Fold each of these.
Amino acid sequence: MSTTKNIFKKGIFGLVVILTGVVFYYATIWATPYYVQNRFASKNAEYINIPRFGEQPNAENSRVVPLPNPDFLYSTINYDLKDEVLKISGIVPDSTYWSISAYQENTTNYFVENEEKVKAKFEYYLAPEGSTAAVLKNIPKEKIIYSPTTKGLILFRYLVSKAYPVQKLSELQHGVTVEKLAKQ
């Protein structure tokens, strides 16, 4: 009888350990992206809805962007759409790679465009999903980025090339503007 009890106790203990491990695993997978994004956002709290421009990564500043590619210039916009729609605009380089990516609060990417689709200039309107702001009424649908979360990150990448050395790309990079348009 006691052998059966011991086997039963060990079985319950094993099941609890496995269940605890599975719960911890999935909780970690769910929570880690929020933690990473919140840490990044808290470091840049004074730059909400304002573009930030990174220098070309090198040995001294290579940790400004996690694992940056030294062939790119990076820009970011930490956004908070709680009370407004943002108009994001700038110039796209014509002979080198360029992209804009949008990430929601848990670091999930929900929007990407690059120089193959966007020519010369870009203009996007960033609004919360389901927004009925009057300012969006006459804007073409392909220019509206609906964010699934009110907070997130916009990332720009510019490839340094012979056609666009660092100085030229830096000028384009610093030409990105963010305009607050409307209260929700």
Amino acid sequence: MPSQLLSKSELLVLYGQALEADLAQISQRLLERGDMLATAESCTGGMIAAACTDMAGSSQWFERGFVTYSNAAKAQMLGVPAALIDEHGAVSEPVARAMAEGAIAHSEAQASVAVTGVAGPSGGSAAKPVGTVWFGWCVGGVTHSEVQHFSGDRAAVRAATVRHALRRLRDWLTD
């Protein structure tokens, strides 16, 4: 599969109807709460925002998406301290958390999801191999984070990242 932005229909082929069901639940919960969502994406390059905005009516609950692929963009658009990136690297828990919090601080949203990772095929290291993705979510003023290690090519890692980011967002919104 080419390493380009996947459409919602291509993501559904990879992950079935589960992605669509997760998005339906996310939209319902956000609407019930009166909350808006912002995304802060690095390795997915806007794929999470694209999946959200593929849903009809998403303007009622999706506020904005930040594509912060470079370290400078993370600092400029989300307020991630450059020193934090220098100390921990862009693919790290502190940066994912700062991205999620920065998406809230630099938008009108009350919920956010952030991803930063190594999609490959190059760029990995022994400490952070290809497929390593850090996630951050900020929901109800509480920031959550976790790391996942996905296998496959660049497209598979990015698609798995979108799926996991939305599945866990659904979980945080229903807790």
Amino acid sequence: MPWARFDDRFPSNRKVRLLSDGAFRLYVSAICWSAENLTDGVIKTAELRLVADVRATRARAKELVEAGLFDVVDGVGWKIHDYHEYNPTAEQVRADRAQRTARQQRWRQKKQGATPDPDPPGSTPDVDASTNASRDASRDGTRDAAPSRPVPARTRSSGSGRERSDRSSARDEAAHSLITPDWHPSHADLDSAKADLDRLGPASAATATAKFVRHHTAKATHAADFGPLWVTWLARERTQPPTQGTFLVGLPGGGATPPTPTPPSFQQRMAALDAAAEADRHRDRQGDAG
């Protein structure tokens, strides 16, 4: 099956960040739906409810249209904007499958000692496409024809939520490393998180950043760029409600409010009952003696 491809800065893209939870889920599900069903990014009106289990699906689709992530196709439904910037066409996927089937057939013919069909020009070696992707069935170390995890194209889109940036492409080439104790966000990261920085305020944002560094230090997280992770961390950070101070309510007659008595324990209650019972028995004995 084909892979649905997403850019690594997809969640922090300005268009995606502004989506409601329902619209975000519908958008991601629509990309996966199209890749699975080879619809070339087209979502039919009648099939919209099958794409994702979200409330008010039509309203969420309208939200995606307003965000520039869905295009309206009259009489059909919607089309994912710039879908083919990252994902192959249905025709390319079918051709790929046909080539893998042909390679598999030639490999089987060779294993059975038969004369296989001639290899087409520029074709890859014939291997068993049904085996694990790390090796073929002939055990010769040649990778098989099973699809590997795709590497998204590095071309930048002009309007999609999956658009790439020069900074993202540079990170693809960078070595992954641990976070440093003095790590701080770049100017680009600060711009991406401006709304959350304003919401949290300087003090809370600094506290959140310190927690972010401690968290990834403890986890020994390796990353080429911690900036996108920090932006997502701030988006999830919540401001602390103001602490309600302790205060006393005056009672008629003045004076300080007496402290609330502590309820007696179970042992104290049982001791009191035993003492009352003993007092009753003592009175009964005195009455009998008189």
